[in-house]
Amino acid sequence: MRRALTSLGVLLATTPLVIAPGLPATAATGTLVVQADGAVVTTLTNPKQGCYELPEFSLLTRVSLENKTDTEMVLHSGLGCKRGLLRAATRLRPGTTRERTLTGTYSIAVKAAPA
């Protein structure tokens, strides 16, 4: 009896995995290119939803962010994609390029890809 209940529990626990195989993808399609003073410092290809830390920028670095994906991204002035104290977050819509003069640590939040 105990073995039958254990088998039933395992069967019920795995049922949602079988029922919902078609969940939407959370990876963006395309590339995000980050340049600092004209040199490529980071390239994210088909990035998954989440937070990505950028290399630290020296004093008054001219940074170009080119979002060639199908997903919106947000540049945060701090690590861990948290709101910064000195600079508001910058939205990067799909297919856009933003140029900023930055100093210090920054991170990029990749939002969920469209379904």
Automatic annotation (TrEMBL):
Keyword Signal assigned: yes
Name used for this protein in its record: Secreted protein
Signal peptide: 1-27
Record lineage: Bacteria, Bacillati, Actinomycetota, Actinomycetes, Streptosporangiales
Keyword annotations from UniProtKB, A to Z: Signal
